[in-house]
Amino acid sequence: MVTQCLFNKMFEITKKSKKDKSRLGKISTNHGDFQTPIFMPPGTQATVKAVGPDDLAKIGIEILLVNTLHLSLQPGENLIYDLGGVHSFMGWSRPILSDSGGFQAWSFSKNRTKNGKKMAKIREDGIEFSSPIDGSKHLITPEKSIEIQHKLGVDIIMAFDECTPDNDDREYAKKAMERTHQWAQRSLKKHQELSKVYLEKGKKPPLIFGIIQGGIFEDLRKESAKFITSLDFDGIALGGETIGYNMPRTLEIIDYLQDLLPEDKPRYTMGLGSSAQDIIEVVKRGIDMFDCVAPTRMARHGSLYTEQGNLRISNNCFEKDNNPIDKNCDCYTCQNFSRAYLHHLYSVKESLYLRLATIHNLRFMMNLIQRLRKEI
After folding, report:
1. Which residues contact 261 (CB under 8 A, 6 or more apart)?
2. 59, 127, 277, 323: most buried, per Cβ within 10 A?
3. CATH assignment of 5-292?
């Protein structure tokens, strides 16, 4: 079996807190290193909405996400591969993590119908779904997901899994967990096969993370943690609908899994980061990586982060307010524009608002991350 033992120092813990479980680390990838803890903005269609790579670099973004399933459907992983990989395609030179496509395909099975029929069906071998673009039929399997992610040329890939919603009963959550375990093994096997080409040339293959499932059930989560951590993954993620959406439950899960998570591998809570407090709480518990669409989505819809809480820029009280969004923020927006100007842009639906607001919310998150790193 081919492993990545030649590159086992991809994750290095550089400092640990004396007052809680937070830690400072560094992850090495083919497109450079990044520090942890780290917030990763999603770039679903090979772009973080409303901002360009130059904006992201100035904000201090060190790694971002792309969406495997959506990029496979349009423009297609083969086209991206032929054009030099997703970094070249989107003009981003820093690390990129790709999801597996499992969450998106699962969401089609739960939430979307066409002509009265569900757009996806979960099978033992993978997830069969209808494209939201043209209705064409597709089957995404663990092997297919890994192949797509390798063709995209990302730095960190995710094993294919089945997301478990909070309202699933224990019987189904167990079946979904067992499928996730089978798919994890198949994902890892395919990744190791594709990694041979890299290793034979003395190059680092992309890193691969496994995903713990089990829903809201403690015994299943612990069983999943033991299984996933027994495999040769480079990092460990916590998945499922709970994570990031139900913070009390998320923190409970992290707490009872603490002793089961390997100390020497990065820990990733998927879909978490809608608020500063959420990030503070998981960092205190030793989580290294997190991503969330909330900062960019909320910015586009008029909700801007400040140290005093979210600010609704549509409110009339900001019509003549000459202050920046947040007086302590060093972002381009706060250094150059007033709340009154942003209120005006939002009111008249000018596209410039989207860029300026997104820059602010992302920089707010990175400032938070930088403060947390200094406190460790």
Report:
1. 225, 229, 236, 267, 286
2. 127
3. 3.20.20.105
